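#onboarding

Welcome to the new folks! Below is a worked example of what a typical request in this channel looks like: someone posts a single protein sequence, and someone else replies with the predicted structure as tokens. Don't worry about understanding the tokens yet, we'll cover that in week two.

Example request:
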Amino acid sequence: MRCVAASAVLALAVGLAQGPAAAAVPERVTPATHPVAPGWPAADAALRAAARQVVAAGATGVIVRVDDGRRVTRFAVGAGRLSPWRPLSPDDEFRVGSNTKMFVATVVLQLVAEGRLSLDDSVERWLPGVVPGGAGITLRMLLDHTGGVFDYAQDEDLLAIVFAEAERVEHTFTPADLVGYATAHPPTFAPGTGWAYSNTDYVLLGMVLERATGQTVGDLVDRRIARPLHLRHTYLQTSEAFRGRYAHGYVTPADTGDGYLDLSGRDDATWAGAAGAMVSTVDELARFTTALQAGWLLPPALLAQMRTTVSASTGQVVPDASYGLGLMSFTTPCGTFWGHYGSIPGYKSRSFSDAAGRRSVEVFTPTESTDAVVAAADALTEQALCASVGRSPSRS
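Example response:
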């Protein structure tokens, strides 16, 4: 889930850091469980070196998975838990934050394909009286963040609750609660006149899905995506609990001033909801992302709509990226890839595929990122994307 205020995360870290003093994170490597085919050793060694740079920059660890369409390499560097120490594994469950939006958007578009929803439906039609001016905001605008609805994750009252408890957040939020924090603010702009990333958009889409089907978002994702793709570790988290072994997520000493602070299991996932509460693994998120791009989950016309991005003149979510319907287009020196970023306290994830769904990259860092970690992870991601198409950034 992107756009959680950095100042709020810092306040959390400073207020709660009671753990052990900072220590260097061991650069232990979990070997790949898939054999690396001939021709990959040089690229694999370069990726591992880049991954170690992410840890050297302050991350507790990093998981990397690269599929070039013929072979897969996957490995983890660093710690899955600092105390007591255990290695990070490519099989660890991981909070994938706003990668959730790809799942929710896919379900919305499946219902559009079935004639149960229309991209031109207004918010008011499905959620009467919930959003001021909802008659002028369409489902398409929610999907591509052009509706102007304020982002509830920027509301200081909400953040004060989420980051108040010393051990864990006891407060459970309903989708209506989250929307209420957003509608206490004026719109960011008139519907259709700008672009601004808003987690509220996807909470509203989750409410529409539940109204249209009578099923929860978690059940819809499970029935329509996870089960058909055999994703056993991919689910919408509705509490602080994970279902399997998981990577612990941390805030770094650069923010706490006193060691790494473990955020995993601390907060109730209901504050992220349909905007960012999914859990997955690198293998399963790759399976979903490639299946989506390969056309297994949506008809061609709706996949094309999903890839229709917002004009750069209205703003970009990250440099070199543009936004479609729950999907980012990310341009690198080695080509254009499709996917999403995910950010939720303690966890950062990147999942991208080529347009054919044949090649993919996942980079997960279980650490609240400093500028140095972000820069190192960006460099690693670009290198991995280029490796997936048999190129290197330096010779692109």
